[in-house]
Structures are given as structure tokens and as C-alpha cells.
């Protein structure tokens, strides 16, 4: 075998050892905002934010600040906003049976502590929608923060947000953010929905935090390859 041929073989083998497969896994719990403890009451015109009792009992999330959060199944029987003589249906969930919405004019905060997170890249994505009644104005935003440790006092790993000032009735938007590296076993997730619209609603669904392990080369195998190359080179010189 020539030196060139061996070098090519070593390179190909090294690439195979370092490549590895990296599959992402969603680590957030109940990112589709379902509730198994409280049945969803059908919404009526004027109940723009859905079922507040079901939202207060939301599975897997801790609500630290609640400005009339509600869960809804959307659509014709879902939340409407009644304003200026018109009744506007909102939207259907994008994942599961319900989505989380706000009532307007306030801030709501939900948190979740996750342990056993492996080292890797975190990718955050979610669907969001806004409804501003005709003739009204304001802004609304959704911010997701991730901290190291078990509460928000830890170092910040990620912060991403979306803001709406438009009347985007019955329209979902998808937000996806650049992956960030995490090497903390425990992380703390904080979801802030800030709704300053004078008459409207902000909604979120299909939240995902995917972690993908960063592949590492097999150091032992690579050392062995280097040794083979060194021995082959010595034999050729001899």
C-alpha cells in the first residue's frame, strides 16, 4: 500500500469516528399546553382568552404571575373578541388540543425546571399569534429565557422573543432561534407573555426546546490511527 493510499484510508476512518449521529430530543414538558386535570369549558363570544380555570391548573408548568391566562381549543367554538360591533374568531391550536392565550393589559410568567439535560446545542422554537380588535392598538410579546441551575438566578443561556403590533387574526407565526450551547445538567425555563394591547390577545403553542449532543471524536481510536501512520512511515524509511 502506498503512503498516499494509506493517508486517504486514515482520513476516511477518522472522519467516520468523529462524525457520529446527533439526534435532537425535545426536553420541554407540555409545550403544547394541554391540561389533563381540568376539562376545557367551551368558549363563548367575549371570552377572548379561553378557559381560565384550566390554565390555572396547567400541567407541568408553574405559574408565578397570572394575568388571566386561558386555555382554548380555538376555532368557531373557541375564543372570540367582541369589539366595535364585530365578533372575530381567533384560531385553532397548532399542536395538540389547546393553546395558551392572554386576556390583554398585563404580564403572565410561567416557569419550568428541567434536570438531567445533556451537554449539547439547545434550539428553541414555538408558534405564536396575536389578535388586536379593530380600532384598538398596543403591543404584545412572548419572551423565553433559559438559565443554568434551578432558578432564574443562574447564568443566562438563552433569551429570545417575538413582538406584535399588528392585527393578525387567525394567523399563526413560527419562531425559531439560533442554537445555543449548554453544558449545564439542570436548566430553568421562564416564559413571559407581556400583553399591553388595549383590546386583544396573545397566544402561544407548540413550544419546543430541542437538545442535540455535540459529537466528540473517539480519542483512543484516533491515537491508534496516528500510531499506525507513524509505524508505516518508519517502515518505509527503513
UniProtKB/TrEMBL annotation:
Entry keyword annotation includes Signal: yes
Q: Where is the Ice-binding protein C-terminal domain?
A: 213-234
The portions of this protein that span the membrane are none
Keywords assigned by UniProt, alphabetized: Signal
Recorded hits in InterPro entries, A to Z, give: Ice-binding_C
Coiled-coil stretches are: none
What are the boundaries of the signal sequence?
Answer: 1-24
NCBIfam families membership:
PEP_CTERM (TIGR02595)
What is this protein's name? Ice-binding protein C-terminal domain-containing protein
